[in-house]
C-alpha cells in the first residue's frame, strides 16, 4: 500500500525526533566512553577544587573586561539555559508515546543532584550551599554549579532522542549557559566544568540503565528519502539477517521490484563512529571513520562497487546513491536472492564455492581489499550467480596483508557454510597450496568480524582445528600468526604491571607519596600548562624538517608534517622508534620508493636524532654549562635529609641484570632472542644493496644540515615545554639543565621496548629533575604534566593527521 507524502514526512518538514516513539533501546558504547571521561574529568578537577585556580582568575579577568558590553546578556543566557531544559521536558510530556523519556530525565536529574552533593562535599562545599546554587543566579561561587549539572543531565539524556540539529543547539545552549553562570558569579570555571562532567556522567548512567534509541529512520522517512533520490517506493521492510547496528532495508518499488537500501541516518552517528574507532585502535590496518561524512561513506562504497565491477568482480548493481533532503545518506542496489549465511550446505555446490573464491581473488588482483568479508557480504544474485556486497570497509591500493586477510575471512565463512574439508579443497583449487599457506597467518579472531566470530563459536570446529587441517592440506609447517591486534588482554595487563612498577619505583627513588603529588598538582598555574600545550605541536614541525633532510626524494612539507603528527598517534601502541620507522616506511613507499630504501631513510632520520641527542649531552657535560647539581640519588625531599635508598644507577643496573636473568631463565624468551639475531642479520644483509642509494643523502650538506638542525630544534623545543611545565609549579632551572634532563630521558626511553616509553620516561624525568635541584613532589608533578602535553594529548590531533594521510593516500 502506498504511503502518502504528507504521512511520510512524519510530523512536518522539521524533524524533531531521531527515532520512532516505539524504537528499540540499546546500551550504547558511547555512554561507557562518556561515563569514563566524566569520572576522569571530575578526578582531575578534584585536585584543584574548589578553586579558584589560575585559570579561574584569568577567565574572571576576561569576563570583567567584557562586563560593560555583555554583562546584561549573562542573565538572559542563564534563563535560556533553564527554559531550554523545561522545553525539552515539556516536549517529551506533550508528544505521543514519549512519556518514557520523562522517567529517563528524572533519573538523570536525581543522579546529577546526588553526584553534585558528593563532589561538592569532597571539595569542602556544604550541602546547603549546593542546594542554594540550584535556585540562585548569582554569588556566592558554588562548586559544583548545581543548576548547570541538573540541566545538563536532563538535556543530554534527551539528546539521543532528538534529531541532530536539536542536539547541536542543545550543546551550544549548555556551553553558553555554563559561561553565563561564571559571568554571574554563580560558579567559577572549575565549578562549571565539574557541573558539565556531572551532568554528562549522570545522563550516561541513565542511558546505560534504561537504554536509548539508535536514531534509526522510520519506514515512512526512508520512503521519503528514496523519493528524494528519484527512487519511488511503496513499502520498506527490514532486510533478512541484518545486524542490530545496521539500517539495511528492502524497498518495494512502484514497478513491483525489490531494491536493497543501506541507510546512514543523519541522527545515527555514534554506533558507526565508536565501532569504527575501536577497531582502528585495537586492530592493525583498520581505519577509523570518525571524520568521514555520511555522503563520503555511501559515495565511497558506490565507487568501490563500480570499480570492482569494472575489474570483472561480480557485484550488486548500483541503482542510486546520494543524500536526501533531510540529510540522510542512502545507497540503493539490486537485491540479492540470498546470502551465504542463509544457505544450507547442500545448496552451496563446488561451482558456487569456486565462484566465491574467483570473485575475491579477482578483487584483490585489482588492488582492492574488501575488508569485511562475512557470510552476509557473499551473496547470490537473482540469476543464481555469486556476487560480493557491502564494500563500506573496502580499501584501494591495499598492501599484501589486506588481501590475505580477505582470503582468510572467506576461508572461515565458507568453512562455516560447508565444513572444513570442502572449504579447504575450494581454497587449494583457487589459490594453490602456497597461497593457502600464505593465508594461514591471518586465520585468527582478530581478522574476523564480530558476526563471523560468533558463528565460529557455534561451529563444530575451532580456528585452531581449521589451521591444523589447512597445514595438512598445504603440506607446510604451521606459520606464526600475523600480529593484527594492537590491544590485547596481555598488552593491557603489561601496561598495568608497568604502571604499578613505575609507581613503586617513583615512590622508592623520589621519596614522595601520592598525597604530596596531588597537592603539588592542585597548586599548578594552569595558564603556563596551556602555554606548554600550545608549544607542543611545534616539536613535530621541527621533526618534519629533519625528515625532509633524511630523504633524497622530493617531498612536500605538509604531508611530512602530517606524518609526524600521525607518529604521535601510533606511538601509543608501538615503541617510539618502531612507530616512527613503521609509519615512515609506509609513507615513503607511497612515493614509489622501495621498502629497503624507505627503511634506510627512516633509519638515517632516527640516527641523526640519536647523534644530536648524544652531542647535546656531551656538549653540556664538557662545556661547563649548568648540569646535574646533585647526585642521581633517590629519596630526595624538600627537607634536604640524606637518603639511604640506592642510587638510580644502581637501580638501573639491578633492573638490567634482572631482565637478563629472566630472559636466560625462561626458555621461550631465550629461544626468541636467539632466533632474532640471525633473522636480523639476514635482513640487514639482504637490504644493504637496495638501501645503499639512500646513503647518498649524507654527501649533501644541505640535507645533513636539515636533518641535524631539525632534530636540534626539536630537542630545544621539548626543553622549552619542560620549562613551561616546571614554571607552572613555581620552579625554575637552567635551560641547559632541562635540555640535559629531557635529552637523556628521550635517548634512554626511546631504546626501551615500551610504547611511547610509558613509565620509563616519567621515572627518568622525575629523577632527572631531582638531580637538578627540584623538590621531589614538584619533580613528579612536572614529569606527569610534561608527558601529558607531549605524549598523552597529542594523539588527539595525531588521529586527525592519520585520517588525513589515509584520505590523501599517503599511508
Q: How are the elements arranged and paired?
A:
Layout: H1 5-8, E1 25-26, H2 29-46, H3 54-94, H4 99-122, H5 127-135, H6 146-158, H7 164-183, H8 189-210, E2 212-213, H9 219-228, E3 233-238, E4 248-253, E5 258-264, H10 270-282, H11 294-310, E6 318-323, E7 329-334, E8 338-339, H12 350-365, E9 368-369, E10 378-380, E11 386-388, E12 395-396, H13 401-418, H14 420-439, H15 450-457, H16 463-474, H17 489-510, H18 514-522, H19 526-535, H20 538-550, H21 557-570, H22 576-589, H23 595-623, H24 648-665, H25 667-691, H26 701-727, H27 735-750, H28 760-771, H29 776-792, H30 795-807
Antiparallel strand pairs: 1-2, 3-4, 4-5, 5-7, 6-7, 8-10, 9-12, 10-11
Helix pairs in contact: 2-8, 3-4, 3-6, 3-7, 4-6, 4-8, 6-7, 6-8, 7-8, 12-13, 12-14, 13-14, 14-16, 17-28, 18-29, 19-26, 20-21, 20-23, 20-26, 21-22, 21-30, 22-23, 23-25, 23-26, 23-27, 24-25, 26-27, 26-29, 27-28, 28-29
Query: Helical proportion?
Result: 55-70%
Question: How many structural domains can be distinguished in the coordinates?
Answer: 4
Strand tally: 12
Please give the largest β-sheet.
5 strands, antiparallel
> Which stretches are poorly predicted, pLDDT < 50 over at least 5 residues?
1-12, 280-288, 630-649, 686-694
End-to-end Cα distance: 50 Å
Structural class per helix/strand content?
A: mainly alpha
| Principal-axis shape | globular
| Beta-strand content estimate | 5-15%
> What radius of gyration results from the CA coordinates?
30 Å
Output the number of helix runs.
30
Strand order of the largest sheet: 3-4-5-7-6
